[in-house]
Amino acid sequence: ENEFSAQITEEKCDNVTYLQFLKSLLRKFGKILIVIDGAGYHFEKKHVQKFYSENQHRLKYIQLPAYSPELNPIEQTWKKIKKFLAISPWGNGTEFEMKLVEALKRTLKN
Fold it and tell me: What is the pTM of this model?
């Protein structure tokens, strides 16, 4: 069975948060295939590359080509969310967050 998973965080994305995400996926699914872009933290040598190597029997990854947003699922999701937010009125930060959550739910349903 295929499943799309994502993590929302207010923390800066770096090798620490990325490794936490990978570990949570491995705990949940046992074996995973992930699609990654060229973000530097996806290839950080001291921790991430070591983690890939140590878990190669249950973790596979596919790296997207550079400058290929049309292939990146998160870029397509952001495109839909931005379009929804552009036509949805909101007056303050709280309303914006509510509209953003609504947009995420709509996007993930489709």
Answer: 0.65
